[in-house]
Amino acid sequence: MSDQTSRDQINIVAISCSPFGGGKTRTAIEAVLSGAAAAGARTTLIELGEDPGSPPDYEAAVEAIRAADGIAFGSPMYRATYTQQFKALTEAIPRTPDDAPLAGRAVTTVATAGSDHHMLGMSGMRDILVDFFAAHLVSPGLFVSPAGFDGPALQAPVQKRAETLGLGLVELATAIRSSSGLARATPNA
């Protein structure tokens, strides 16, 4: 691959905000990345809970966000809300006039939960990303309850939805790159 092709390739980063590595949230996020890769994007997965014995490396996650054209944020839902790891990550992301790495970026959300009753917890993730950070959202995101899994794997229809979400993330990131206005979004004061 030439340097020019590498620079032109869309870079998608997925961040799993699960307190534990692996698991259903990772499975769902990997399916989104699969769709992004099939669309020609370079993809990276970061797991904040990969090593339960060490604190998450939020600084490395923020640097990956800076380099990304699009970001998929994933979190298991507990009591209809996202994890502390997602909250801590959003607190680590700068949001100043001179430094706002999420502003004008394509984002989407992925959530897993023990029941369908937790689906609305995703709205809190979206609100923070869109209204606070001025990111552009590929909606509706992906919510997966236990019925969406066949053992450790996603059910085929859910896998397809996840891959379509990854494609949409690449397409929105591409549109933002070529837009005279979308990339200049700034957070509300």
From TrEMBL:
Pfam families assigned: FMN_red
Residue ranges constituting the NADPH-dependent FMN reductase-like domain according to the UniProt record: 11-146
GO molecular function: oxidoreductase activity
UniProt KW keywords: Flavoprotein, FMN, Oxidoreductase
Domain of life: Bacteria
Keyword rRNA processing in record: no
Transmembrane segments: none
Record-given protein name: NADPH-dependent FMN reductase-like domain-containing protein
